[in-house]
Amino acid sequence: MADDPEPAPGRREQLLDAAALCFARGGFHATTVAEISLQAQCSPGLLYRYFAGKEALVSALVDREAGRTVAALSAVRGSADLVRDLDRAAATSATGWEDPRLAALHIQIVAEAARGSAVSEPVRRHFQDVIEALAGTLKIGQESGVVDHQLDPAATARALVALASGLTLLRAVDSGPTAPAPSPTSYVCPMHPEVTASEPAKCPQCGMKLVPSEAAPVAQSAEGAAHGGHEHGGHELGGHEHGDGLEWEDLMPEINRASDPSNMVWQLIDRETGAENGAISWAFTVGDRVKIRLVNEMDSDHPMHHPFHIHGAGRFLILARDEQPEQNLVWKDTVLLRAGETVDILLDVSNPGLWMAHCHIAEHTESGMMFSFNVARRSEAT
Fold this sequence. Notes:
The chain has ten helices and 14 strands.
């Protein structure tokens, strides 16, 4: 399915509806962006065009509900039968929350705000806006004589909002464990639709977490795909082998553009010392020949290929991939590590100075996947 060329309000609402259902079904922290995109019948890249991540989705859900409630309260101001119309407004703003799963979502959002996360401010603003709108409506009712003048509008509005929140809490608790969301019956890889399972697992081809398949079909190329051989026809960049999970050809460019160090962390780790990224401290001397083992581990939220580059210090040979000797022994400065792959290289250190090793995907380098190291000159007496 094709992504929208430009952001559209209708698509944004669809994404918010999908996020609400997924959060209600699986919980905020357990739900993945891939699951939400499947529910919305779009690619993860499209979702990132509208929202920076899950916290942004939650904030937008809070703002949307606050806007609906404030609009409903403002519409009844000046009503001849304010009590009746306030009751109707409350019923309208609560539409859909009869589902105990959505009531539980309300609790999740408030709990997340109480942790001091990024959704704290939107939730605080939500309650403040609703209380102010309700207090303003009550004050107009007092002026027109339909609301008791002895009531404090602000205190009364606060109490009514607290009551509504309490009723939502009771609705979620009363439902108990007898009405859980149905468990998915099948799971699918977002990148390799032919990979399915009857229980949660990871794709053996790319390592991505399998997501519930009942939400929607995964994205394909514009003219379809022949998944038996993993060859996607109709791709705007021409046909390409897709079985190895080269995601930047489809979804990853947009995800990379939306990612920064605040929402995505990539790491290089020296297993001998435990040092990570910039804390890694290598030191070589001109003339050294160093065997280095590179392991692209699968134990991450999003395993993918990484082009590892050693800048300036010299050149290296690829000795083996996954213990299989490399037949094409040519000098390189970059090697593509596929997800889950182990590569042994022999570095020929020939250039003194302060150099760098890093992932050659710029967004990954920016998020910290890099370190510098020193190459010393070898003394003539050595």
